[in-house]
């Protein structure tokens, strides 16, 4: 594992931030999380697009430009010696005496690389239970902001019920998971919430859409409710960290489809796994 902060490579244990840092005090920043497969960050350009877009939307200027950022990342990967790793990247509005209004200081960039956080094989082989939970987030969920408290509370509620993920419901519609996008499969078509301000447009979601198109599986961006989820043939979650995980059932409500991972989820994930290796 290895860390990076504003031009320096550091161990993860090193104390590097002053107390008055806006990510720490306000969650005033944005982040990305992506996986490195055999030295290559998967869908790096899409992650960088989202990073710079998120930062723009909250008016943070990321000091390194894209080329510089790619170079820093390459160096982080090579110095870490990890061919396969998870990179967490965070940009905050910087270090300044605590005050809500924006300071005139440079933004701050930190990164970590760690070995993959592996899923138990049973998760993908058997599918998972999810907990339906109210979506209590703000109206800018398309920004990958550091403010994750509603997501954490929902995830913790799910974990305490023995579930893998909380599936969030806003105004009668499933938006997404607490840290994943959510999909159902009905009559051979994949359905997921449109990429509006109510969800984070996942990069794994982009990969799933491309794979579906390639395989001739309809990919419908139409929101669905909990009843439609329960009546689906299959359902699954995606994120850069978990790739694709089938949903076997909804806590307290019953199984989805056969209660086992379905053929569409399996086919999409098989291709996803191939793409991560094929570069
Ligand atoms: N939705 C939320 C709220 C997330 O936090 C995440 C990832 O952490 C995702 C969706 C999936 O995004 P990605 O596929 O880019 O990892």
TrEMBL record:
Gene3D superfamilies for this protein: 3.30.470.10, D-amino Acid Aminotransferase, subunit A, domain 2 (3.20.10.10)
Presence of keyword Transferase: yes
SUPFAM superfamilies: D-aminoacid aminotransferase-like PLP-dependent enzymes
EC number: 2.6.1.21
UniProt keywords, alphabetically: Aminotransferase, Pyridoxal phosphate, Transferase
Broad class of enzyme this protein falls into: transferase
A single GO molecular function term of this UniProt record: pyridoxal phosphate binding
Subunit structure of this chain's protein: Homodimer.
Listed PANTHER family: AMINO-ACID AMINOTRANSFERASE, D-ALANINE AMINOTRANSFERASE
Name assigned to this protein: D-alanine aminotransferase
Organism: Paenibacillus albicereus
Gene: dat
């Amino acid at each position: 594992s290895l860390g990076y902060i504003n031009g320096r490579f550091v161990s993860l244990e090193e104390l590097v931030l002053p107390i008055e840092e806006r990510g720490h005090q306000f969650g005033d920043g944005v982040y990305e999380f992506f996986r490195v497969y055999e030295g290559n960050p998967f869908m790096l350009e899409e992650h960088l697009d989202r990073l710079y877009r998120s930062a723009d939307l909250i008016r943070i200027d990321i000091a390194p430009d894209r080329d510089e950022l790619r170079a820093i990342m390459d160096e982080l990967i090579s110095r870490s010696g990890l061919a396969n790793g998870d990179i967490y990247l965070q940009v905050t509005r910087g270090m300044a005496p605590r005050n809500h209004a924006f300071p005139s200081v440079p933004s701050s960039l930190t990164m970590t690389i760690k070995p993959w956080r592996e899923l138990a094989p049973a998760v993908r082989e058997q599918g998972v239970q999810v907990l339906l939970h109210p979506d209590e987030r703000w109206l800018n969920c398309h920004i990958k902001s550091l403010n994750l408290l509603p997501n954490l509370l929902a995830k913790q509620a799910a974990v305490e019920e023995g579930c893998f993920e909380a599936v969030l419901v806003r105004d009668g519609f499933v938006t997404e998971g607490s840290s994943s996008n959510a999909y159902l499969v009905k009559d051979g078509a994949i359905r997921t919430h449109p990429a509006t301000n109510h969800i984070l447009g996942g990069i794994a979601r982009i990969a799933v859409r491309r794979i579906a198109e390639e395989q001739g599986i309809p990919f419908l961006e139409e929101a669905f409710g909990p009843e439609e989820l329960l009546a689906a043939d299959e359902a699954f979650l995606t994120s850069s960290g978990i790739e694709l995980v089938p949903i076997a059932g909804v806590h307290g409500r019953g199984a989805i489809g056969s209660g086992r991972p379905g053929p569409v989820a399996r086919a999409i994930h098989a291709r996803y796994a191939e793409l991560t290796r094929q570069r």
